[in-house]
Design a protein that fits this description.
The protein is mostly beta strands and 96 residues long. It has no helices and 8 strands. Helices cover 0% and strands 54% of the residues. A hairpin with a 3-residue loop joins strand 4 and strand 5.
Length: 96
């Protein structure tokens, strides 16, 4: 598997692939293109790295834009949502 593999056809929803998982950590590759999300309020901390594309996330107090190579930590129970995505590849690590 290559982290930079991207679908050749349009897809209506994000594509999430769990790369590794155990009782304390989950590593996911997420592919998106134009998808947005509702509000998340997660039970886990999340470290997210945007590998490809551009995205905009909204938190209760601010918005932030991500470009390739940029990352952020989202502490558990921090309400957030995805407002905009181009052809994005994300690497997300969820941990307790």
């Amino acid at each position: 598997m290559n982290l930079f593999d991207y679908p050749n056809e349009a897809f209506p929803e994000e594509i999430t692939t769990v790369l590794e998982e155990n009782e304390t950590i989950r590593i996911e590759k997420i592919v998106s293109c134009g998808q947005t999300s509702g509000w998340y309020d997660q039970e886990e901390n999340e470290w997210v790295l945007l590998l490809k594309g551009e995205a905009e996330l909204e938190f209760e107090t601010h918005k932030t834009r991500l470009a390739p190579g940029e990352y952020l930590v989202i502490p558990k129970h921090t309400r957030h949502r995805v407002l905009k995505t181009t052809q994005c590849i994300w690497l997300c690590i969820f941990y307790r």
